[in-house]
């Protein structure tokens, strides 16, 4: 969504976020947002919820690595781990 939308500040200092923007960002009643002021502009960001973090963590790959008493592992048995360790 690259279109600018104009709103007004109410007597109580409130601004209504247009429905199209709320829908695009998934903003609902109770959604937390952060405000940042920089160079005479306000940036509003949706804060991640616990569910957002849980979904993100689910995407992290898991590999059980067999490490010996000297801290060594078999890179052939664990090629993904080896590539991750070498390439970062």
Automatic annotation (TrEMBL):
UniProt key word DNA-binding: yes
Pfam families in the record: MazE_antitoxin
Keywords associated with the record: DNA-binding
A GO MF label: DNA binding
Gene3D superfamilies documented for this protein: 2.10.260.10
Domain of life where this protein originates: Bacteria
Annotated SpoVT-AbrB domain residues: 4-49
This protein's record includes keyword DNA-binding: yes
NCBIfam families: lp_hng_hel_AbrB
Protein name according to UniProt: SpoVT-AbrB domain-containing protein
Organism lineage: Bacteria, Bacillati, Bacillota, Bacilli, Lactobacillales
């Amino acid at each position: 969504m690259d279109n600018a939308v104009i709103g007004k500040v109410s007597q109580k200092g409130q601004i209504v976020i247009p429905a199209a923007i709320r829908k695009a960002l998934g903003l609902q009643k109770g959604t937390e947002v952060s405000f940042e002021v920089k160079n005479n502009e306000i940036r509003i960001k949706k804060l991640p919820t616990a569910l957002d973090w849980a979904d993100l963590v689910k995407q992290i790959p898991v590999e059980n690595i067999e490490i010996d008493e000297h801290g060594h592992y078999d890179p052939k048995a664990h090629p993904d781990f080896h590539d991750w360790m070498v390439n970062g």
